[in-house]
Design brief:
alpha/beta, Arc Repressor Mutant, subunit A, D-Maltodextrin-Binding Protein, domain 2, 3 domains, about 40% helix, rod-shaped, disordered C terminus
Length: about 300
């Protein structure tokens, strides 16, 4: 394999046109620089610098190489020097965030506002998360993901908790459930919307209801929170959804505490470790954490 250090030596020699001058710049002894020149002559098959009176002059091959070596050396220095400080005002980047329904509607406005204020050249793409498959993060198709950890979460992923969430009930405004007494009796007698998604454990709510002596009557099954809330808005059915995650979807609806205890859960941010050292990615993660830590009218 070629000794790439010789490129630096050759660049300085051709620039100085003198063994002594090149030795001074590279802080080498004249004898060491003479040996380096001999090595360069051997590698290139050309004398490179030849004696003309008391000076050395470049050969045609050396003149040809001079225009090539300089850019090569500068390119190598650029690759090997530490990354420059991140200039958010000039950052052209597209990030992809994958999350469950409601995240973009709830946290998106504040997140986009913060991004626009700091890095107007950044574009953020929101993707709905239909399951907990870690392949998009591993493949680099997704930059950041939010969700609840479970045994299926890829072990190599980086994880930071964002906020605690809990299950709540939601009905349309003016629903009979919220009028008068016998709330618990009314709740048990209503039709309920079951959200059934891949990777989402949906039986914990029914288990909690049964432990409190109630049984939900499932009237319909849907695949997402937004669909459940759209149906609750136009019918007398009850939707059970995460509180903070769906805050941006529940405008105009009536939300209430469930008449039984369900264990709260933690929403975390996940990313692949190969992005740990990326300054722009670190900045985005900081923005997401900051926005999710804010209170916007709902419970933390």
């Amino acid at each position: 394999m070629p000794d790439l250090n010789l490129l630096v030596t050759l660049d300085v020699l051709l620039s100085e046109g003198s063994v002594a001058g090149a030795a001074r710049r590279l802080r080498l002894s004249p004898s060491a620089m003479s040996r380096a020149l001999a090595r360069l002559r051997e590698v290139t098959g050309d004398p490179l610098l030849v004696r003309a009176g008391r000076n050395l002059v470049p050969t045609p091959r050396a003149i040809e190489l001079r225009s090539q070596v300089g850019p090569l050396v500068e390119g190598a220095k650029t690759v090997l020097r530490p990354a420059e400080a991140l200039d958010l005002s000039r950052l052209p980047r597209r990030f992809t965030l994958r999350s469950s329904e409601g995240f973009a509607e709830t946290f998106g406005p504040r997140l986009l506002s913060e991004i626009a204020a700091q890095a107007p050249g950044v574009t953020l793409q929101f993707l709905t998360k239909p399951d907990k498959d870690s392949t998009p993060l591993r493949a680099g198709e997704v930059d950041v993901e939010t969700g609840v950890l479970d045994e299926g979460t890829a072990p190599e992923l980086r994880v930071v908790p964002l906020f605690r969430d809990r299950w709540i009930g939601v009905v349309r405004a003016g629903h009979a459930l919220v009028q008068g007494a016998d709330f618990t009796a009314k709740y048990g007698g209503l039709g309920h919307i079951l959200v059934l998604r891949r990777g989402l454990r949906s039986d914990e709510i029914d288990e909690a209801a049964l432990s409190a002596g109630m049984k939900r009557r499932v009237a319909t099954v849907v695949s997402g929170f937004s669909t459940a809330l759209a149906l609750a808005r136009k019918t007398d059915l009850v939707a059970t959804v995460p509180e903070r995650h769906t805050e941006g979807l529940r405008d105009g609806l009536h939300s209430f505490d469930l008449p039984f205890e369900v264990v709260p859960f933690t929403i975390s941010m996940l990313w692949h470790p190969r992005m740990d050292g990326d300054a722009a990615h670190r900045w985005l993660r900081g923005c997401i954490r900051s926005v999710c830590a804010e209170r916007s009218g709902g419970r933390p």
